[in-house]
Amino acid sequence: MPSEHETVGAYALGILDDAEATAFEAHLAGCEWCAQQLDELAGMEPMLAALADLPGSGSTPAIGDSLSARPSPRLVEKLVDEVAEKRAQKRRRSFYMIAAAAALIIAGPLAAIAVNSGSSGGGGQVTASSAQTTFEAMSDKRSATDPASHASATVGMQQKDWGTQAVLELKNVKGPLKCSLVLVAKNGQRVTMSSWSVPNWGYGIPTAKTEESRKPLYIGGAAAFKPNEIDHFEVVTFDGKKIVQVQA
Fold it and tell me: Per UniProt, which keywords does this protein have (predicted)?
């Protein structure tokens, strides 16, 4: 590898003299590899103080003197390698966090349905097929019909040690729509309990020709608020349009 490539670390640290810096900048103008490496090492000066105390590097300069001193080539090489590795680790951590977040977003609606029912027998989960059964077993329910959208919603609630388990029954809603069940607490805080898509044929349409369209939607959700801390529930579209509101 040409010696100019090996100068990128020293240039990033700002320890080249004027002639060396000018020569490297001329090389940098036509070297994509060095430009990429320099971008990776940009802003590494604040890390120099933390990395200066490397094993085998000899005496450690004071933090205030670290940028003015000219480290040995061996120390510069170690610093560059160390910073590159730390940046690579940071990128890997960011990738894993993004992947985990994406998995949670994709699983969100299913996780909202699969809420612990609290029944005896090992704490089974409320699946899409059993959400209606859970809803029908709930004694605390609130209902409302919106005069504009004509959508009808009933929210069943059950208090848990961790907050409130809820199941929504939604009727007379036509698609295509993407909707959420939002809990609005008495303190004004809003919590999305679950979200779903409404297909073209809709849910709970009493005049529909198919049985599938006449069936209501049942979907579960959960929140950390107790029932007496909840003001109301809203069914809203992803673009912010309120379909129906149910007082708690």
Answer: Membrane, Transcription, Transcription regulation, Transmembrane, Transmembrane helix
The rounded radius of gyration (Å) of the Cα atoms in the chain is: 30
102 lies in some domain: no
Q: Are residues 75 and 151 in the same domain?
A: no
Residues of the chain with pLDDT under 50: 1-2, 48-49, 52-71, 94, 96-127
Calpha distance 69→55 (Å, rounded): 18
Domain count, the chain: 2
Structural domain includes residue 120: no
Question: Do 142 and 92 share a structural domain?
Answer: no
**12 lies in which domain range?**
3-96
Task: Kindly state whether residue 153 falls inside one of the protein's structural domains.
Answer: yes
The verdict on pTM exceeding 0.85 is no
